[in-house]
Design goal:
single chain; alpha/beta; 2 domains
Length: 217
């Protein structure tokens, strides 16, 4: 549904910033990609164009069925990539080489009889910021409000409102105290309708929790 006049951009607009074709909302860009669900206003920034993000979802094969879920209001910098479960190789043999995939006499053990590691869906919450060239491994869950530093490799779950960095990524700090985090998650401003959200923007950017609380539905 289009946002009301003066109440923010339409989340189904591919290029929401006039004159900046490198920034695009991912929801319309990925609408036809199976097993990918992206929330409103989440954007990708790439000098080669936001459509390039389609190539940043790696080893995502329909027959595996794992899903990539990204919440609302997430910001993805250039080079943000997600490795999906199709990258996994079987670990219980004496080799990890996928002989059966090539057939022609190498498929004595069929693919469906091999136990491939499955990490499950990759799920990103709301209002998550991914720095340049960050990489997320299969099955990871990243909580709302988290920040992933540039060139981090996220191989384990990230708590809400944590800042993570490194390879593998580790929690550097929490953005707020536990009670503030709990209240922000409870307020869930990312689910508010356009008119209320627009009125809440000053409180959000100035870190005025009292004002945000007063606008609660």
């Amino acid at each position: 549904m289009a946002a009301a006049q003066g109440m923010g951009p339409n989340p189904m607009t591919r290029y929401p910033m006039p004159g900046h074709g490198r920034v695009g909302f991912l929801k319309p860009i990925l609408a036809d990609v199976p097993n990918v669900d992206v929330g409103d206003y989440t954007y990708y920034d790439d000098p080669a164009g936001p459509e390039r993000f389609r190539d940043n979802i790696l080893y995502h094969f329909d027959f595996i069925g794992d899903r990539l879920v990204i919440g609302r209001f997430c910001a993805l910098a250039t080079g943000t990539r997600f490795i999906m479960n199709g990258a996994n190789h079987a670990l219980d043999g004496l080799t990890t080489f996928p002989f059966a995939a090539f057939g022609q006499g190498w498929d004595a053990v069929p693919m469906d009889a091999i136990d491939f590691p499955m990490k499950g869906d990759t799920v990103v919450g709301h209002d998550v910021w991914f720095g340049y060239d960050s990489l997320v491994m299969p099955g990871v869950r990243i909580g709302s409000g988290a920040i992933v530093a540039s060139r981090s490799v996220v191989a384990a779950d990230v708590p809400p409102y944590a800042v993570v960095a490194g390879n593998p990524a580790r929690v550097v700090k929490m953005r707020f105290a536990d009670d503030v985090i709990a209240e922000l998650l409870d307020l869930a401003w990312w689910d508010w309708e356009s008119e209320r959200l627009t009125r809440a923007i000053p409180a959000l950017v100035r870190s005025d929790l009292a004002a945000l609380r007063a606008l609660r539905p």
